[in-house]
Every structure is written in structure tokens, then in C-alpha cells.
Design a protein that fits this description.
- The chain has 128 residues and is an all-alpha fold.
- Helices cover 62% and strands 0% of the residues.
- The protein is built from 7 helices and no strands.
- Helix 3 runs antiparallel to helix 4.
- The radius of gyration is 21 Å and the shape is extended.
- The two termini are 42 Å apart.
- 0% of the residues are buried.
Length: 128
């Protein structure tokens, strides 16, 4: 029995005539090398999901603000409206270490040696 494909194909339309955000996104995509577009679309979707994980209104509100004139400060104001306490000290504190960085660090500590270094030594005959 063949293994089922768990990948998901996402298809949607942008309407540059109906929305300034769609127009900006279409223009940005057109300026991008064609080979980079798929990765960008995937990253953009995952970034929206990450924002939605914090508050499901956030991706919609940030998307509605997107124009060629949007600024980082405007995006921060939107986030401050949703998370007033968490954003009150934005820029004044050090951000938390991403979970992926912690996991890799923990794996290196458990293994005792960087896997890349092990592989290089095995490939080029260095001391194990």
C-alpha cells in the first residue's frame, strides 16, 4: 500500500485591483527572482500562522496595514494594540532564545561533539 502524501498545496489569488495590500504583495513578488518565490510564499504563510498563534486577529490586521508606505512603527503600533503589556517594553529587553536554537544546543551537549565536525573527520580521515 503506497504511503499517503501528507504535503498540502495552498492555492489562492491576490487581487491587485481590489486591495492596496494585494497590490503591494504582487509588486514585491514581481521584483523577486522567480526561483525565490516559492520559498518566500511558504515563509510568508508560516509567518502569518506564527502571528496567528499569538492572536488570530494579528495576521489580518497586519495584512490590512500593508501598503508601499507601511512602516515598521505602524506594525509595532498594531501589535501594541493587541498586546499592550507585552509590547510596552518593546526594544528595551533582550528577546528570548528561539526554541530551535535551544534544541540544537541541547543536541550538541548530549552528543558531546558537533555532528558536522564528526562528519568532516570521518570524511577526511581526521582523529575521531
Amino acid at each position: 500500500m503506497p504511503k499517503s502524501d501528507k504535503r498540502r498545496k495552498i492555492t489562492f489569488y491576490l487581487n491587485p485591483e481590489g486591495s492596496a495590500a494585494d497590490r503591494y504583495a504582487c509588486d514585491a513578488i514581481e521584483r523577486m527572482p522567480q526561483g525565490d518565490r516559492g520559498g518566500f510564499w511558504r515563509a510568508a504563510l508560516l509567518a502569518g500562522v506564527a502571528l496567528g498563534k499569538q492572536d488570530d486577529r494579528l495576521p489580518h490586521m497586519l495584512a490590512a496595514q500593508l501598503t508601499e508606505y507601511s512602516t515598521f512603527e505602524e506594525m509595532v503600533l498594531v501589535m501594541k494594540a493587541i498586546f499592550p503589556e507585552a509590547m510596552s517594553s518593546f526594544g528595551e529587553r533582550r528577546t528570548a532564545e528561539p526554541a530551535a536554537v535551544r534544541i540544537v544546543s541541547e543536541m550538541k551537549e548530549e552528543n558531546g561533539e558537533d555532528e558536522t565536525l564528526k562528519n568532516a573527520r570521518a570524511m577526511f580521515g581526521g582523529n575521531p
